Amino acid sequence: MISNGTSKTVIQLHVNGETKDVMIRSGDTLLQTLRVQLGLTGAKSACQNGDCGACTVLVNGEPMHSCLSLSIETVGQPVTTIEGLNNSTVKQMFVDKWAIQCGFCTPGFILNCHALANKHPNADDSTIEEWMQSNLCRCTGYHEIKEAVKAVLQNQENGFVS
Ligand code: FES
Ligand code: FES
């Protein structure tokens, strides 16, 4: 970490497999840094209060609300955004199951689903329900989203990894 002598500091973030230098203020959220400094706008800015999950990213494989995470707290930890899951099976399952309407909530759901598939590959319906409660869909497409999540878990059983 290098101070530039002003109120800003240069830190290195590890995002989607790449190391990036970013200049931040100590109070900058990870969401701000991803969107404004790195141009990774897949994480959406909505409630900014931890309530909706639109800003979900993975930090060390754990789903986090990036609106409540400080950029400085993620130094040294791998961050994955929706841009890092291009061409992933999880993303394709959401498309195949029509689990996208306006798409605003979709990156957050996909990242949350990716973490669920890694941590609870045999999740039952109630675990899926509970896990996905951290994300809201304003278009209320929950049925299709659940079908997509189930399809991801099913694919994983059949040997898919991504
Ligand atoms: S924008 Fe972060 S939880 Fe809503
Ligand atoms: S698809 Fe529109 S908010 Fe979920």
UniProtKB/TrEMBL annotation:
Pfam families: Fer2, Fer2_2. The keyword Protease does not apply. InterPro entries: 2Fe-2S-bd, 2Fe-2S-bd_dom_sf, 2Fe-2S_ferredoxin-like_sf, 2Fe-2S_ferredoxin-type, 2Fe2S_fd_BS, Beta-grasp_dom_sf, Diverse_Oxidoreductases. Residues 9-85 form the 2Fe-2S ferredoxin-type domain. GO terms for molecular function: 2 iron, 2 sulfur cluster binding; metal ion binding; oxidoreductase activity. It comes from the Bacteria. Keywords: 2Fe-2S, Iron, Iron-sulfur, Metal-binding, Oxidoreductase. This is (2Fe-2S)-binding protein. The lineage of its organism: Bacteria, Bacillati, Bacillota, Bacilli, Bacillales.
